[in-house]
Amino acid sequence: GVKQWDLVIDAIDDVPTKANLISYCAKLDIRVISCMGAAGKSDPTRVHISDLRSASRDPLATAVRQRLRMLAKKEAKESGEKITNGSGVSNGGWISCVDDDSKLAVVFSSEKVVAKLADITDEQKEEGMHNFGAVDNMRVRVLPVVGTMPAIMGQALAAMALCELGGKPFSPVGAERVGRNIRHKLYQHLRTREKKLQDKLTPTLKEGSENYTTSGTYIGAIQIDPDDVEYLMAELWKNKCAVSGSRLGTVLELYRWDMTKPATP
Fold this sequence. Notes:
alpha/beta; four-stranded mixed beta sheet; Rossmann fold
C-alpha cells in the first residue's frame, strides 16, 4: 500500500493549487500545516496558528475556504450526498478540516492588508502575461512583501512541524485575544450567578456541611480570578463555545460543568 505521510507542509501561493492539495490530504486523513498570506503585512506580533476558519483578515485564507467549500459542494452533488449547512457534505465530510486544527493548522497574520496587487506593466502586456508567471497556470500579479514576514511565518510553521515530529507538540493560543473589558464582564457574570445560586441553596445545606447541599451541589466562593478567564477562553477552549463550537461574536459565558465541584480553572 501507499506509505502514509507524517504530515504535509503547504506554502503554495496559488489558491486553486493550494485548495486541491488540502482537499486531497483531508480525504486521505493526512495532517496539513499550511502557510497563509505574508504579502502586504509587516507586524510580527500579529502572526497566529489556528484552524482555517479562525484565520481572520487574511485574503488568501478567505479564498482557500471558499475554494474548499466549492470543491466539497461539487463533490457532494456528483456523489448524490446531502449538502449540509456549513460542513459541506453529510456527516461533515472532509471539509470539516477547516474547523479542526488537528487536521489542518494554518499560520496566518491577522494584520489588515494595506497594499494591493501590483499593476500590470506595459512590458508585460506587450510580451504576453503568460511569459511572466513563475509556473504555468499560476497568477502573475503579486503583492508587495516585506522580506521578514515570509521568514517569520515559515519559521513558525517549521517549529510546529518539528515539535510534532519530535513527539512534543504544542497547543497554539487562540488567535482572537479576549479584551480586558470582556474578561471582566465574564468574570463578574460568573460571580453574580454563583452568588445567586449560593443564596438560593444555602437553606438546603447538608447538616454539618458548609458547602454541599442535600442534592450534592457545591455552593461557595468561586476559585477563579480574572487572569484565569483568559487562560480558560483563549488557551483551553480557543475562544469557542464548549457545547456548540461557536466562536467569539456569539454570547459566551463561563459556567461550571460539574455542579458537585467548586468553580475552578
